[in-house]
Amino acid sequence: MTSVPDLGVHSLRAAYRAGTLKCSTVVEEVLKRIADAGDDKVWISRLPDEALRDAAAVLEARRGEIESLPLYGVPFAVKDNIDVIGLQTTAACPGFAYSPEKTAETVQRLIDAGAIVIGKTNLDQFATGLVGVRSPYGVPRNPFDAHYVPGGSSSGSAVAVAAGLVSFALGTDTAGSGRVPAGFNNIVGLKPTPGLLSTDGVVPACASLDCVSVFALSCADADAVLAVTASPKKTPAIGRTFRFGVPKPLEFHGDSAYAALYAEAVEKLKAMGGTAVEFDYAPFREAAQLLYNGPWVAERTAAVGAFLEEVHEGAGVWPETRQIILGGREYSAVDAFEGQYELAELKARATAATQGLDFLALPTAATIYTVAQLRHEPILYNAHLGHYTNFVNFFGLSALALPFGFRPDGLPFGITLVAQPFTERALLAFGARWQRSLSLPLGKTASTLPPPANDPVVAEDRVSIAVVGAHMEGLPLNGQLTSLGGRLESAGTSAPVYRLYALPGGPPQRPGLVRMTEGGGAIELEVWSLPSAAVGAFISQVPAPLGIGTIAMADGSSVLGFLCESHATMGATDITALGGWRAYLKTL
């Protein structure tokens, strides 16, 4: 039997399939790593060692079912605001602890797929915070520098993955708790669209916004977990060319190293085929402010406010947590409605500001603080860490935190991709490309990326359309394509069987492409693609005498594209000899 240097989901699965690894070996390795880590403040409770050995023995007896158990023998951790039978749920507050009557649905799906729960992890109390220091159980040790915060609220879950104690971990994310800890621990943090993963059995923080999140070393591993816990909808992939949003203005709270790393990340995205598009961050920032400086605090009060008001001394309530949650009593029903109206207006502005983008590329956090700094300024610095995260669930979006690099002092930096609802698999597929383009460690482990065959693949659901005139990139009607999710796939020429005419009328001026039986030429064109669901909306904007037909390409293939009725060329200027519309515009 092999040793277990790599706890990656796909690495374990390959070894189990090959018969070179047993579940009992993995459990013993996990127990050894936990013991070697010492008092790292990661765990609030763990299943007894013998119970874990028994779970491994049960799985070994089911080895013949491995193909129907996609997470067979994979060890994982659960944030301690999520219920697991046999372990108390504390939400990092000893006085709140209770013994659940059933396991949370998302956790149960993982167990049913063959995964092994190791224990419950530390967190910012009641999932209120982005720092990872608001817990009477201590501060989980950042594996890159114990003087710095691990990020919260899912601190223990992120550290457990980054330190190689488990293969993956569940967290929760209301305001960034599944992303900030990923950024500070050099791992992947998947924040699904609100509602995609069940929150049944999760202690609510802000119930209308809460999500269960996934921490993993690779996007391929996170995708394997997602496949078990949810049924992601089919969405278009992010293509080899794409448009991504860069917020304006940028804010790094004086952290020049993070600012430089973000600038490098933007250049990396460009090198991968991206076009950077600046967008106004104001509506996103203003929405983020509503979470802790608006009536949504009252939803946190609704969740655990009564407990905090009645609790006795010695229950382990964190002072900042009490202050924040009970602050919700200050808001009225009128405030709640006005907040909803304001949020709707901000969402409309945000949507308009990012129209036509495949995703936003944001710093996961603007900076990182030491544990000592957070003790000195616990509320303000926590707010700084949510600058790029707090708005996402308000707008119902999906997000993926990805590692990128390190400051000169060795602390990790990451970016987060934020995209439309239910685009998790598209983000993970792109994230796998991102990880393969970099030479980074996975967390602080000796693990390696799984083979490329394990990377998420998203089937394209797009329609290609050739354009020869004002819809080309940078020309007046190109926005009709980009606003519907269009992306440029290639540039080339038609087969030499067409004539191109400058049609009368405008603005904007339009060309007409007509197929000839003889005497035609090759015409410059661009091939764009649209999500199939958007094709009808695009075609409805095409005026006579233009229409959509089949265009023969120079390479012998064919594609849908703009053609013109021949009668409309009477009196039009024949510009075929120029070879294309851009060449014609240069003559004007």
Plain-language structure description:
The chain has 18 helices and 19 strands. The chain has an eleven-stranded mixed beta sheet, with helices on both faces. A five-stranded mixed beta sheet has the order 13-16-12-18-17, with no helix packed on it. The model has no long low-confidence stretch (mean pLDDT 94). Helix 2 (23-37) packs antiparallel against helix 3 (49-61). The chain starts with 8 loop residues before the first helix and ends with a helix. It folds into two domains: 39-233 and 245-454, Amidase signature (AS) domain (Amidase signature (AS) enzymes, Alpha-Beta Complex), CATH 3.90.1300.10; 462-585, Hypothetical upf0131 protein ytfp (Roll), CATH 3.10.490.10. The chain is an alpha+beta fold and 588 residues long. Strand 7, helix 8 (256-271) and strand 8 (274-280) form a beta-alpha-beta unit. The longest helix is centred in the middle third of the chain and has 21 residues, at 333-353. It is globular.
